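Section 3.1 - Work completed
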Amino acid sequence: MTTAAPLIGITQLSVNVTTKSQELSLYQSSGAIVAAIVVGVIIIFTVVLLILKAYNRHMRGKRELEPKSSKTAVPPLGQNSSSVTQHSTVTFIPIHMQSR
């Protein structure tokens, strides 16, 4: 009978150690899953940003290369349609940023 008491104590101790190690592995794996999700979201945002940047560069080049068409101004409809229309022009000066 004296040998039965230590066996029960050892069994309870091994169950506690097993439970704690399972909890610890669950915490570690959940942390790894959260980290993987965060890294995945950062990668997706980076890819979208690069795609938008390339698209913007492509469209800006396309706009700069297309010929400038001289559009005739259509007089506005209304009471002042017989008055002289004033033309205003806006000039865009591209600013080239240096990459770092």
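Second construct:
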Amino acid sequence: MVAEQSEVVVGYLLAHALPTLFAGGPILEIVELVVDPEKRGEGVGRALVEHALTEAWSNGCVEVVAPTRRAAAFYEHLGFEPTATYFKRKRP
């Protein structure tokens, strides 16, 4: 999803749906959310997330997740709850 103002990209959200057993149905995982630093605080990120939520619910997803620590306050403000620690292993 892309947010534009005056034909200029000011933000984007990358997400994908995953079938799961643990959640009781498919989930939408927000992989990346980026907003132009000069446009932060203007509702661009919120609009992108709200659009992703609408799409997720209309496509049968049972939850939307955002694996991040850096943007915790942003997602909590939008009604998300912290649920787990995210582990990763980089390629050697």
